[in-house]
Amino acid sequence: MADRLAWTDGQLHVGEALVTTQNGVSINDGPEKTDYQKGSIELTSHRILWKDKSAQVSSVLLINICQ
């Protein structure tokens, strides 16, 4: 799964727009649970950002949806 995800600071890029957010979202690797449980996601015009709200340090994973 590491080949599909990357860490980011969670800031929107120039020209990127926030579309919607959703809380209570988990990321699984097929049928396997991961450590990425019950976070929140932000769908932007370019990416999906998953945020761990319980982490002491900002933890934001990104999945690019366009190049």
TrEMBL record:
Transmembrane segments: none annotated. GO terms for molecular function: phosphatidylinositol-3-phosphate binding; ubiquitin binding. Residues 2-67 form the GLUE N-terminal domain. Gene3D superfamilies: Pleckstrin-homology domain (PH domain)/Phosphotyrosine-binding domain (PTB). It holds the Pfam family Vps36_ESCRT-II. It comes from the Eukaryota. This is Vacuolar protein-sorting-associated protein 36.
